[in-house]
Amino acid sequence: MCFDCNSSSLSRRSLLKFAGIGGVAAMTACFGRTMPAFASNAPALLPDEALAKLQEGNKKFVADAEACAANISKRRQDVAKSQAPWAIVLTCSDSRVVPELVFGGVTLGELFVARNAGNVVDTDVLGTIEYGTEHLHAPLIVVMGHKRCGAVSAACEVVSKGTKLDGSIGKMIQPILPVALAETDRGDNFVDKTVHANAFNGAERILTESAIVSRLVEEGKVKIVPAYYDLDTGVVDFLHKV
C-alpha cells in the first residue's frame, strides 16, 4: 500500500518498474554551472513527523509488499519544476536496498536519496545532504546500513585477514576501516556489528563535519537518525538519533 491511496491493484513485480524513478537519481543528477532555483516552500513535516511517516511506510512494506504507484503521471507534472522532499536517505548502492519501496512505496518528489557502496559520507554525499536540508528544507536525514553489506564485509576482511583490494574499491572502503578496527568482536557478528557502527559513524560525521546541518539540528529543524535494514525481513530498525 502507498501513503496516498488504498489500492493494491499493482503487484510487487509491477511496482519494481517504478523503482528507479524516485530519489535514487538525486545523488547523480548534475546541478549544472548554476544552481537551480531553490524550493521556496517550508517543509510540510516536522522531523519527528517525517520519521513517523518512514516508520509507518516500512510497516506497510513488511506487512504487505504489494504497493501502488498512484497517479504517477499527474505527480510527475506536479513536481517537474520544483521539489520539496520530506526525508533524505543515505544508503548503500546494493540493488536489494530500494528506499522508495522499503518505506512503503513512496512516489516522485518525496525522498532525496544519496547512495554509494557502504553508505559512506564523502564530500559528494555531504554536499548533497546540505543541499537537501538547507535549500530543499528536508527535515530528516536517515543513514541506513543493511544486512550483509558487501562494502562493510570487504572492510572487515581487510581488518581481520589483511586482504588487499585493488583499484578504487580499496580507496572507497577506507572510511569504513576505522569503524571495523574499533569493533572488538571479530566473530560471526563482526560484519553485522560493523554495519550498525558504520551507520552511527556516518550520522555523527554529518553532524560534526557540516556546519550547515549542525546549525539546522541545533535549531530543531533537522534530525539525523541512523538505521539498519534487514534484507530477510524487510524491517528497518531506526536506531537512536545522533
Automatic annotation (TrEMBL):
<dbReference type="InterPro" id="IPR001765">
    <property type="entry name" value="Carbonic_anhydrase"/>
</dbReference>
<feature type="binding site">
    <location>
        <position position="94"/>
    </location>
    <ligand>
        <name>Zn(2+)</name>
    </ligand>
</feature>
<dbReference type="GO" id="GO:0004089">
    <property type="term" value="F:carbonate dehydratase activity"/>
</dbReference>
<dbReference type="InterPro" id="IPR019546">
    <property type="entry name" value="TAT_signal_bac_arc"/>
</dbReference>
<feature type="binding site">
    <location>
        <position position="146"/>
    </location>
    <ligand>
        <name>Zn(2+)</name>
    </ligand>
</feature>
<feature type="binding site">
    <location>
        <position position="149"/>
    </location>
    <ligand>
        <name>Zn(2+)</name>
    </ligand>
</feature>
<keyword id="KW-0479">Metal-binding</keyword>
<dbReference type="InterPro" id="IPR036874">
    <property type="entry name" value="Carbonic_anhydrase_sf"/>
</dbReference>
<protein>
    <recommendedName>
        <fullName>carbonic anhydrase</fullName>
        <ecNumber>4.2.1.1</ecNumber>
    </recommendedName>
</protein>
<comment type="similarity">
    <text>Belongs to the beta-class carbonic anhydrase family.</text>
</comment>
<dbReference type="GO" id="GO:0015976">
    <property type="term" value="P:carbon utilization"/>
</dbReference>
<feature type="binding site">
    <location>
        <position position="92"/>
    </location>
    <ligand>
        <name>Zn(2+)</name>
    </ligand>
</feature>
<keyword id="KW-0862">Zinc</keyword>
<dbReference type="GO" id="GO:0008270">
    <property type="term" value="F:zinc ion binding"/>
</dbReference>
<dbReference type="InterPro" id="IPR006311">
    <property type="entry name" value="TAT_signal"/>
</dbReference>
<keyword id="KW-0456">Lyase</keyword>
<dbReference type="InterPro" id="IPR015892">
    <property type="entry name" value="Carbonic_anhydrase_CS"/>
</dbReference>
<dbReference type="Pfam" id="PF00484">
    <property type="entry name" value="Pro_CA"/>
</dbReference>
